[in-house]
Amino acid sequence: MSVKKPHHHPNSPCLENLPFDAEVADRLAGIFKQVGDPTRLKIFWLLCQQEECVTNIAYLLDMSSPAISHHLKSLKLADLVESERKGKEMFYRPKSNKPARLLEKILSQTFE
């Protein structure tokens, strides 16, 4: 399929050559939206250091447990964080998928 553009620029990439579709673009935008929040970025960074429970994250960030739970839920929906129950507590850690590993790498490179 050829896309007719209003202006022709030689050697310019065309929409038909985009490496992803609208669904992938929406997913990426959702991930960037979640990590665009400073609190979520701090939480994710903490979890990259070690898995942690809500109570400890709340203490470290001087926030309430319900607020931390809300942010963790958003990070889970963005597929960046996973949880595991250990006894009575739920522990969180970064997922081992590509987006989470990439974000972890960006953070480690930024704060080295």
Automatic annotation (TrEMBL):
Enumerate the InterPro entries for this protein.
ArsR-like_HTH, HTH_ArsR_DNA-bd_dom, Metal_resp_trans_reg, WH-like_DNA-bd_sf, WH_DNA-bd_sf
Work out whether the entry's keyword set contains Transcription: yes
Q: Which GO terms describe its molecular function?
A: DNA binding; DNA-binding transcription factor activity
Q: Which keywords label this protein? A: DNA-binding, Transcription, Transcription regulation
**Record keywords: DNA-binding included?**
yes
Where the record annotates domain HTH arsR-type, the positions are: 20-112
- Any Pfam family the entry gives: HTH_5
What NCBIfam families does the entry give?
Answer: HTH_metalloreg
- Protein name per Swiss-Prot or TrEMBL: HTH-type transcriptional repressor CzrA
Recall the taxonomic lineage recorded for the source organism: Bacteria, Bacillati, Bacillota, Tissierellia, Tissierellales
